[in-house]
Amino acid sequence: MENENNRNEQRTTRRSGMNGMARKMTGGNKTAGIVIAICMVAVGILIFCAPLIMGLGIAYLVTIGFAAYGIFEIIAYVRTPADYRNGWTVANGIIFTLLGIMILAEALGGQYGKINMISTFSFIIGFFALFGGITQVSSYGAFKKAGEPGAGWILASGIINLVLGILIICAPIAGWFTMEWIFAIYLIAGGVALFAEACSGKLAHKK
Predict the structure, then answer these.
(1) Side-chain half-sphere exposure of 171, counting CA atoms within 13 A
(2) Terminal CA-CA length for the chain
(3) What is the 3-class SS of 146-177, one letter each residue?
């Protein structure tokens, strides 16, 4: 009985997690919830209508985010007292800043640079998916031996991540736009759900 309750709580958490961030942004306000929901659906539709333009836009935002994160790390290192500084922090900041600037400069230089930008981030995402899949598959045995519920789901998730990682690395451009379409579906579905909650007045009760 307790295991069944735990599984029900986990399913509820997964369902509520889709719009969790959006709900926090609205603060339980009905109007804000409707506006954010409409924006989510609009962006999702734009991705489907103009995948190339939106894909490049997302890639540019990610590139700028890389550089901004690197600058933040460097500033954090400088502002940290000398006794507590970590050399890896500034090294990480320099690498991310240089990587972001180099990719952005190349992308602005021509069409080939834009393709390289998309390919670079596809490789990075594919690598993380591959690494996550390996970690999940390797931890499956330990979970199964411990008798933990959901061990099979961990194995299935690991295999899916492995396959996705390999496919993205082998076909980075196609992988990027496939992830873009998945993101569009996520935005549209999440936006519709949030809009329904906001209109029904349930959003205010989930603060």
Answers:
(1) 8
(2) 29
(3) CCCCCHHHHHHHHHHHHHHHHHHHHCHHHHHH
Between vectors from CA 79 to CA 74 and to CA 81, what angle results, nearest 5°? 120
CA distance 159 to 140: 11
pLDDT for res 45: 92
CB 133 within 8 A of CB 165: yes
Q: Is the dihedral of CA 50, 56, 62, 65 positive or negative?
A: negative
Token pair belonging to 115:
């393709």
Angle ∠(11,141,122) on CA atoms, nearest 5: 65
**CA 33 – CA 198 distance, rounded (Å):** 6
Q: How far is 92 from 77, CA to CA, in rounded Å?
A: 10
The answer to whether 182 touches 7, Cβ cutoff 8 Å, is no
Q: Which residues contact 144 (CB under 8 A, 6 or more apart)?
A: 151
The torsion of the CA quartet 123, 125, 128, 131, rounded to 10 degrees, works out to -60
Q: Walk along the chain (207 residues) in steps of 10 and give the mean pLDDT of each run.
A: 49 49 58 82 89 86 88 89 82 89 85 84 85 86 78 84 87 84 87 80 52
